[in-house]
Amino acid sequence: MEENIEVKPEEFKQTCLKFHNELRSPVMMLFACDERAERGVFCLRAVFAGTFARRWFIVKADLPAPEFESIATEIYSANLFEREIKEMFGLEPKGNPDSRRLRLHDEVWPEGFYPLRKDFDATKVAGEKGKYVFNKVEGEGIFEVPVGPVHAGIIAPGHFRFSAAGEPIIDLDIRLGFTHRGVEKLFEGKTPAEAVKLSECVAGDSAFAHSLAFCRAAEKIGGAVVPERAIVLRAIFLELERLTSHAAGIGGIALDVGFSAAAAYASIIKEAVHEVNGQISGSRFLKGINTVGGVLKDIDEEKKDLLIKILTAISPDFRKLKDLLGSSVSFMDRVETTGRLSKKVAEDLGVVGLAGRASGIGLDFRKGSRPYATAGFQMMTRAEGDVLARLNVRMAEFEESIRLIRYWLDNLPGGEISVRSENKSGTALGVAEGARGPVLYWIDLDGTGAIRRAKIVDPSFHNWPGLSYAVHDNIIPDFPVCNKSFDLSYSGNDL
Amino acid sequence: MNTLGEIFKKRLLGGLATRQIAAPAGFEAVGLELSAVIRQLFKRSLNIREVDTGSCEACEAEIIAANNPIYDISRFGVNFVASPRHADALLVTGPVSKNMRLALKKTYDAMPEPKFVISLGDCAKDGGLFKCSYYTECGVGAVLPVVLHIPGCPPPPIEIVKHLLGFLRKL
Questions:
Q1: Which of A374-378, A389-393, B2-6 has the lowest mean pLDDT?
Q2: Mutate which: A102, A106, A175, A201, vs B, most B CBs within 10 A
Q3: Same domain? A278 vs A409
Q4: Where along chain B do its domains lie?
Q5: Residue B25 pLDDT
Q6: What share of chain B has pLDDT > 90, as a percent?
């Protein structure tokens, strides 16, 4: 359920602070819309989540001038959003001390061109280019280690600038945006039916969570009541995606401390799930399943048996993997107390999803939702906030996902798997708790059923600052394992 | 006392620690042929450097899967290397974000001759879904000379190997 609250521009900041303090919610989304053509103004929207209750609060204000009072000076989790609004819309967050761009890199994009403005013309982009200024740590014996954007492995690009004194990291400046493709602009003008495919390619390893969040938003506007069977099928696919993602995360942690045998084990489990995904849906990455109004792929008796067979096979494999990791003293030594993120810092930074739960933030949007509530869903949290805690949450969630899928396969309701969704105008928020955390889509449809604005927030966008904080005082060789324990998406962040 | 002996004994009695998982039908045959072609063309092995220029990372996941213990394409003489200086081929995914253009060219320039470029995934061909964006270069071909394109969104490991074989066989 979402509640829209419209306030005067001068009340926007105070209202946001009120929701932030009362709900204890970080800024889940903060974004602008260019409505100059229709109403002559830009407007801002801030989204807050009600704890446990599935309630969302969307605060909206019009901006009479291309500027607004920075919220980030009070609520840190608004910071990246404000920088994003500044570079994409040219709206100035007054008082925000960090005005560096996130995605339109200074070296390739001149000043003064704002792609998400409606009157933006890509053919006119020209002019002098600038240079990015990294955080600088000064003092005796401080040295900088630049890493990326092209890394040694088969991995997405990003730049990490470490400032270290001896072994420990004093500061880590993460510069992302290397995979920026202009996704939000590409949504504009498309119908929801056309845009589903695009949502699947925002973050490929979370293709299903992204298309699900998008479809849920479109369904809210269209007034589609998704059939019971489709709700359960979606939950099964979402958990299958979590299995592959968590297996990759667990394997990655093992690999990054040099524990190849365990990493190989995890990759076998991951492959088994991808393979069965392909067999039951035609896509190893669960693409082409979601549609506005339900799903396109059903799970019949034969596919059900296939799924159960695979789950039965990987369960003992997974237990062995757990034993392998837990019984290795040198492995535990590397992950325990490494990359610690305290609950207080996680809350301040607005860390969400799995990384948040491993730091004691009990927030999982599956909890209480259909069909999770009836399946007896157990949320996993840990208090320690270190690499081991994130590993433990991941392992517990992996087993819980297997249990849930089995439960739903045994209790699959009958009936249709999709309904027609009408073309209506309106705005709505869609949420899906993916493997990393909540994937959020806010969309605005015009009268013809075309998308006027789509705002996407992958949980990675909230969590990257958490990583750069967690590595403080850790040694640079432990950075890879810290990074893998968060297992964040570059493409989902960069859009 | 005799720990090593005990490990061997356990292994002999208990069999392998992992269960047997077969790659999809036909993979072994394709792989063996690829191995023979690579041996003939490169005398030893084919070394590939991978660069992501803005893919959604599904392509990366499939390239990693090709290296997992089930497919294990390194046994056919295909190695993924950490440095472009060690590479014969550059494997590029993504529509080429403007932010990656320079890094991609630098990576290519750092490779020793002779070298060739492979693009992988639908958006690497011409930008795919991201073709009309303000921030992409409409595919790898707009920046580097591509000699082989592997289609798919994303291409599964067996397709990667098949396309690689098809290309090398013609050389």
A1: B2-6
A2: A201
A3: yes
A4: 24-170
A5: 84
A6: 80
Q: What is the nearest CA distance from A113 to chain B, expressed in angstroms?
A: 11
The C-alpha of B41 sits at a distance from chain A's nearest C-alpha, in angstroms, of 25
> How far away is chain A from the Cα of B159, in angstroms, using its nearest Cα?
13
Measured between beta carbons, the chain B residues lying within 8 angstroms of A271 are: 21, 65, 68, 70
CATH number at residue A95: 3.30.460.80
Measure CA of the first residue to CA of the last residue in chain B; give whole Å. Answer: 58
CATH architecture of the domain with residue range B24-170 = 3-Layer(aba) Sandwich (3.40)
The verdict on a CB contact (< 8 Å) between A185 and B134 is yes
Residues A279 and A417 placed together within one structural domain of the fold: yes
Mean pLDDT value of segment B18-46:
87
| Whole-angstrom distance, CA of residue B104 vs CA of residue A157 | 11
Across the interface, whether the CB atoms of A201 and B123 are under 8 A apart is answered yes
| 3-state percent helix, strand, coil for chain B, nearest multiple of 5 | 45, 15, 35
pTM for the model stands at 0.94
What sign does the CA torsion over A467, A470, A472, A477 have? negative
CA B133, A352, A336, A403: dihedral to nearest 10 degrees? -100
* Distance linking the first and last C-alpha atoms of chain A: 26
What residues of A are in contact with residue B16 (Cβ under 8 Å)?
Answer: none
**Continuous segment of H or E residues that includes residue A56:** strand A56-63
- CB of B34 closer than 8 Å to CB of B161: yes
Helix (H, G, I), strand (E, B) or coil at A199: helix
Smallest Cβ distance to A122: which of B82, B99, B134?
A: B134
Distance set, CA A301 to CA A238, A297, A305, A315, A355 (Å): 19, 13, 6, 21, 36
The ipTM of this complex is: 0.93
The answer to whether A188 and A452 have CB atoms below 8 angstroms apart is yes
* Residues of chain A contacting B57 with CB distance shorter than 8 Å: 156, 203-205, 489-491
Query: What distance in Å separates residue A115's CA from the closest CA in chain B?
Result: 8
Q: What total number of domains does chain A contain?
A: 2
Does residue A53 sit in helix, strand or coil? coil
**Residue of B53, B135, B160 best to disrupt the A interface, most CBs of A under 10 A:** B135
Q: Nearest chain A Cα to B65, which residue?
A: A271
CA nearest A276 in B: which residue?
A: B24
pLDDT 10s digits, A5-29: 999 999 999 999 999 999 889 999 9
Q: Do B100 and A178 touch (CB under 8 A)?
A: yes
Question: Domain boundary residue among A97, A124, A151?
Answer: A124
Asked if A254 and A325 count as a contact pair (C-beta separation under 8 A), the reply is yes
